[in-house]
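Running this now, will post back.
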Amino acid sequence: MSATGFSDPRGPRPARTVWLRAEPDRPRRATPLTRQRIVEAAVALLDEQRDEDLTMRRLAQRLAVTPTALYWHVSAKEDLLDLALDQIFGEVRVPDAGGNWRDEIRELTRAWRAVMLRHPWAPGLIGRPMLGPNVLARTEALQSALVRGGFTGVQLAVVTRTLANYVIGAALTESTWRRSQDPGARAEARRHIAANRDAYPTLTASGHLDDDRWNDDDLFVRGIDAILAIPSSGG
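Update: finished.
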């Protein structure tokens, strides 16, 4: 059994990501099992548990097959996580192009954050190779809108990364709060700050962690607007 929970009788998997490897030309067994079914089941399992709890055995039980049957479609846990991550990106609606470029980015980033909050395991995986077709299509839409806003060259790269890191960070922070299973954790943190106002006068005055003053949805949208207010190279 490997550290990932996948024991592969065919030996160690290649290091290259699933998106950069050619599919092996091997016969498929006569079974209704498909890679798509496996990925959908993996997403459901991840939603219920956590990525570290995803094992071939649990996935096989969910699909009512043997673990060996899964290896005909997915080589390793790393591949499955890449495929699952791209699967949920397919839920992010790509806005219609050609309108107001800022509105398109607001729509895209709000949808992206919402999807990651529905799948709270996802933000922690976005350091893996992001080369799936769903991910690339949405990254293309993001950069296309930025280009129409006048961003080019290194500035385009910087703003793209800033937006991506902001969305991922916001989703990771919010999902961590939500998964703490303590609905009063934020309020308790706010009370701690307010009770020590001499040590934290600015945090107290600014409403830091005060959900009654600033909610996550409002702060997120304002953050996107602040990033998009960066002057583009096109003026």
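The chain is about 55% helix and 0% strand. More later if anyone needs it.
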